[in-house]
Write a structure and sequence with these properties.
Blueprint: E1 3-11, E2 14-22, E3 28-32, H1 39-50, E4 68-73, E5 76-77, E6 83-86, H2 105-129, E7 134-137, E8 140-143, H3 145-152, H4 164-169, H5 181-184, H6 187-193, H7 196-215, H8 226-239, E9 248-250, E10 254-256, H9 259-274, H10 277-285, H11 289-300, H12 313-327, H13 329-348, H14 355-366, E11 372-375, H15 378-382, E12 390-395, E13 408-412, H16 413-418, H17 424-445, E14 449-454, H18 462-476, E15 481-487, H19 490-499, E16 507-513, E17 516-521, H20 528-534, H21 538-543, H22 545-554, H23 569-574, H24 588-599, H25 614-624, H26 632-655, E18 661-665, E19 668-672, H27 674-681, H28 687-695, H29 701-713, H30 726-730, H31 733-744
Parallel strand pairs: 2-17, 3-15, 3-16, 6-14, 14-15
Antiparallel strand pairs: 1-2, 1-4, 4-5, 7-8, 9-10, 11-12, 12-13, 16-17, 18-19
Helix pairs in contact: 2-13, 7-10, 8-9, 14-17, 18-19, 25-26, 26-28, 26-31, 28-29, 29-31
């Protein structure tokens, strides 16, 4: 896998997206996309392709047409088994691959032979019973015949192979192997059988049959009926028994010398049965289309009528299955013998030497969870007859090294979920464990796979988040994996790109322009401050103001600016982020010595002059920013401009207000005039919020709505750590530009 080309149109909210991901020099591509832009929709397309459901890919809300999705790998359409999607979290997710991790490759070929023999038996049983081996129900493959056998025979284990030997030891006096299960136990036929009229006529028929057994005393009720007599006739006919004066004696004195004579006797019994009023009443009940099959069954096996009483139906199911198994006894015994040999090897297999234990070790060595895990039904799980049942063991004191069994309690996954025992983080860790099982299966198969990873570390604590990153790093170094890691969390995106040494050409950010989603190479491959300070143009000079202010706050304020009215350097920079008394008369020359001291550079370019007014520069730049300019510095300039204009407006409005105001100083609520309030503002923190809380006491509702957005959309502070830039990175430039235009119109 070297080149992945995608073309999406009207796919789950993606109007249009065309992009090529390259894996020639790096197995990983990382993609940052703000919440709600395209990440989930992108992942969903791949998930539907993985599940072979391309027909379900669409615009789910507006049903916009046309729907197009092209996913090519190296010039050909990607195959479903070449995709594995990892969502951020799926509740109650359990891997389907656990059983494959319980044995090594040496046993797999033998297991495949065993399954082929079992499948052969199931196919024969399907033909005999009429029940399908499997069917599609609600889009999922459901295995039908095995579960029905296990239910009807009341078998303890869900594994059919493990029960073959037990089944063959069961006694079965009656041979109903020629009767199809579905001819009796279909939904439509059962409605007839369970009806009051049919059940009444059964009783009448059985009373009449007593007379038949008395008349034809070579028959024995419950032991030797018409069905067995007809079976003997068929077998004798096949074997050419009636030669050399061979004969059959019935009831000690009735000598039968030919098949013709035997058929005449059978005909007499059938006439006696089928011409009776009691049978004719049953025949009337079976006059429907579905009843015709049951009628034929009764005509060929009259003794089965006794089993159609409601109280006998469960036993009839059992008899039917045992009859089928007796018919194919030799085939079943071969499977039993094969399994006995296989079971010896299973017993010799040490669980701590299997891929399951490898996967579990990967998880336990990295992630913190309050339990240990073990497989309960290892035999049936290994042969694939049942889903591996995982038990979770909890220690009373939380000490997972405790060896006292009295301190341990074990519960299964269903109990774990129903009791809501785990925290959300622990549930996510359990989800991740199952994903690890899936990936380990792919590793064993060594098949080339494209992993689409959607915010896998979302909501994890830092320890587990870095554990995930280390696991992703290990996967990224394997030749058969290619990865596209998507995140709306800029800190995680930046961290995983760095830890996995993702090359510059493989690090992307998603942006939206009109209806088109653009995937562009990340502008900043390191902290943006490094780029900005190397190139002190107009935008970068403004964008660095909050950064330099934070540097001063975290170190020593040397008070080296040359402004006549502002002593502290930090306050001068604050006055460019919040509207203060001297905000509008700060010039570039006042920043020069500060930038020289803290950035080691004051070589301003792009036409910047010492006399440039910084307040005017911010607003001029903000005015010229278009929605196509999506870099971080553009958003910071808009955010600063929005706050300066908003605060200036509120200060002017408050200063003109003549009534009393109420504001909070610490935990104390204070009343006073507008001038009293404005006096406290110079030394207060969170100035925008405090102005807003006072303005809403008298201001215009339309302005209040806009100022409320200012509080929501512009960050309180822009900090040194680039992690803190995430809120403004996630902010759509269109929204910021609209808000800027709104506050400018005040």
């Amino acid at each position: 896998m070297k080149n992945l080309n995608i073309q999406f149109e009207n796919c789950f909210g993606i109007s249009k997206l065309n992009h090529s991901f390259n894996f020639e020099e790096d197995n990983v591509n990382t993609l940052y996309a703000r919440n709600g832009l395209m990440k989930t929709s992108f992942t969903k397309v791949f998930e539907y392709l993985m599940k072979s459901k391309p027909d379900e890919i669409r615009d789910a809300i507006f049903d916009t047409q046309p729907v197009k999705f092209l996913v090519d790998i190296d010039g050909r359409t990607i195959k479903p088994d070449e995709i594995f999607v990892i969502n951020s979290y799926v509740n109650n997710y359990e891997t389907d691959n656990l059983a494959d991790l319980l044995i090594d490759n040496d046993l797999k070929s033998e297991l495949q032979d065993l399954h082929q023999e079992k499948d052969k038996i199931l196919k024969i049983l399907e033909k005999m019973s009429g029940i399908k081996v499997s069917k599609i129900l609600n889009g999922k493959k459901v295995y039908e015949i095995e579960s029905q056998i296990i239910k009807d025979l009341k078998l303890e284990s869900n594994s059919l192979v493990l029960n073959f030997e037990k089944i063959m030891k069961e006694s079965c006096q009656t041979d109903y192997s020629e009767i199809k299960y579905t001819d009796i136990f279909s939904e439509s036929t059962m409605k007839i059988i369970l009806s009051d009229d049919f059940q009444k006529h059964i009783l009448d028929f059985l009373l009449h049959n007593e007379e038949i057994y008395q008349e034809f005393n070579f028959l024995s009720k419950g032991h030797f009926g018409l069905g067995k007599l007809k079976s003997i006739e068929r077998e004798i006919g096949k074997k050419s028994f009636f030669v050399n004066d061979n004969f059959v004696i019935l009831n000690g004195d009735l000598k039968v010398k030919s098949t013709t004579e035997l058929k005449k006797i059978i005909k007499k019994v059938e006439d006696k049965i089928f011409t009776s009023n009691e049978f004719k009443k049953l025949e009337k009940d079976l006059s429907t289309v579905s009843g015709s099959l049951l009628k034929e069954v009764i005509e060929n096996n009259p003794e089965v009528v006794n089993e159609l009483k409601i109280s006998n139906l469960n036993e009839l199911k059992r008899t039917l299955w045992l009859s089928y198994f007796k018919k194919i006894e030799a085939d079943v015994k071969n499977v039993v013998k094969h399994y006995e040999s296989f079971e010896k090897k299973i017993k010799e297999t040490k669980i701590n030497q299997t891929p399951w234990e490898t996967a579990l070790s990967i998880f336990e060595s990295r992630f913190s969870v309050p339990y240990k895990m073990e497989i309960e039904n290892i035999r049936s799980a290994i042969i694939g007859e049942s889903i591996p049942q995982v038990k979770f063991a909890f220690c009373r004191d939380g000490d997972l090294e405790n060896e006292n069994p009295e301190n341990w309690s074990k519960i299964n996954r269903e109990q774990l979920e129903s009791q809501n025992t785990l925290s959300q983080g622990e549930k996510r860790a359990l989800y991740l464990l199952n994903i690890i099982f899936d990936i380990e299966k792919i590793k064993i198969e060594n098949r080339e796979t494209l992993l689409i990873i959607d915010d896998i570390a979302d909501s994890f604590d830092y320890k587990n988040k870095y554990a995930i990153i280390e696991y992703l790093k290990e996967i990224s170094e394997l030749d058969n994996f290619r990865m596209i890691i998507l995140s709306h969390n800029f800190d995680f995106y930046r961290t995983v790109s760095g830890r996995l040494n993702v090359k510059r050409n493989n690090r992307f950010m998603a942006r939206k322009s009109d209806y088109l989603i653009n995937i562009e190479r990340e502008h900043y491959q390191d902290k943006p401050f490094v780029t900005w300070k190397k190139k002190l143009n107009k935008k970068n000079t403004i964008a660095l103001i909050p950064f330099v202010r934070n540097l001063i706050e975290y170190s020593v304020d040397k008070q080296i600016n040359n402004h006549q009215s502002i002593e502290k350097d930090s306050f001068l920079l604050t006055s460019l982020l919040h509207y203060k008394e001297h905000t509008e008369n700060i010039k570039l020359v006042h920043l020069k010595s500060i930038y020289e001291e803290h950035l080691g550079s004051s070589k301003f370019i792009d036409g910047l002059k010492d006399s440039d007014n910084m307040y005017e520069l911010v607003l001029n730049l903000a005015d010229r920013i278009s929605i196509e300019e999506q870099n971080l510095e553009d958003k910071i300039i808009l955010a600063i401009g929005i706050r300066l204009i908003s605060e200036k407006f509120m200060i002017q409005q408050i200063s003109e207000y003549t009534g009393d105001l109420e504001w909070r100083l610490g935990k104390k609520v204070t009343n006073g005039s507008c001038q009293d309030f404005l006096t406290t503002l110079e030394t207060s923190s969170n100035q925008t919020r405090r102005l807003y809380e006072v303005y809403i006491q008298f201001g215009d509702n339309n302005y209040i709505k806009t100022l409320d957005k200012v509080n929501i959309m512009t960050p309180e502070m822009i900090h040194i750590n680039s992690f803190m830039y995430e809120p403004i990175l996630d902010m759509d430039i269109i929204e910021l530009k609209k808000l800027y235009d709104s506050v400018k119109s005040f």
